[in-house]
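Late entry, written up from scratch paper. The run itself happened at the end of the previous shift, but nothing got recorded in the book at the time, so transcribing now.
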Amino acid sequence: MKKLINDPANVVAEALRGIAAAHPELRVDHAQRVVFRDDAPVRGKVGLVSGGGSGHEPMHAGFVGPGMLDAACAGEVFTSPVPDQVVAATRGVDGGAGVLHVVKNYTGDVMNFEMAAELMAAESGTEVVAVVTDDDVAVQDSLYTAGRRGVGVTILVEKIAGAAAEQGLPLTGVAEVARRVNGNGRSMGVALTSCTVPAAGRPTFDLPEDQMEIGIGIHGEPGRRRVPLAPAREIAEMLVEPVLADLDFTGGDGVIAFVNGMGGTPLLELYLMYAEVAAILEKAGIGIARNLVGSYMTSLEMAGCSVTLLKADDELLRLWDAPVRTPALRWGA
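Output as recorded:
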């Protein structure tokens, strides 16, 4: 294992110290491992909280700031944050208009966010609504989930719902927007290599040099099938075709097309993959209204990528274009 770390047991705590040093516009609760926007709570605004296991950076701490999340909880690597962390985050962003939890559909995340919402209701009566993302078309159920996994659409939910909250929508309206994004988004991913969790010190799974895993999860969970390595054009088809088969993306105002790197894939390859995805969509008669290319939801140093498509409308595009100022996403601000 070759990593830029000190002690594997302290990776998350030391990374949070780096986030605090690099981004003075954020406030880090090191005891609870929660990252807040510096002005939280914002009075009269719905608070947005998300979080999950570390190792997926910049998700979620990289999306904390005006126009997106108000707080993010950092669990241990590939491990859900505990309820006390979520309670601390929820309490810290409660500006009196309620709090939205954006939760990826993994069993530990769902359970711990539910427990935190119950604790907050008993403690202060804070209204908490959860939206669970489940956009991964690769598998229906797994060891980690009941139903589909929450992956790339989570970032689109956080951006678009964050804009809705920033513009003053009530909790019911922000939650409705978040659910609409999740319901209109689908994703599929591929891994070319495994990754190594620092505490384990060895690859999560064995993947021969001449093979790839189609439909991989963001923690290294197995996908639909293992196949021989193929050219990018064929890989793009393996990712996009199941997404298009699952939801009708034709008509309307086009899609937001998101090509995401898993941590070990250079932008050179991600842009090459985006060109292949765009060609497939053009052939299918699907227009691209907006796009996002880069490593935003990673799996440590795993090589590979995922494709997320969101069927857009005027409102979703307006909220996507709204100003955002976070470490990982920043425009119009």
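The mean pLDDT is 96.
(Scratch paper discarded after transcription.)
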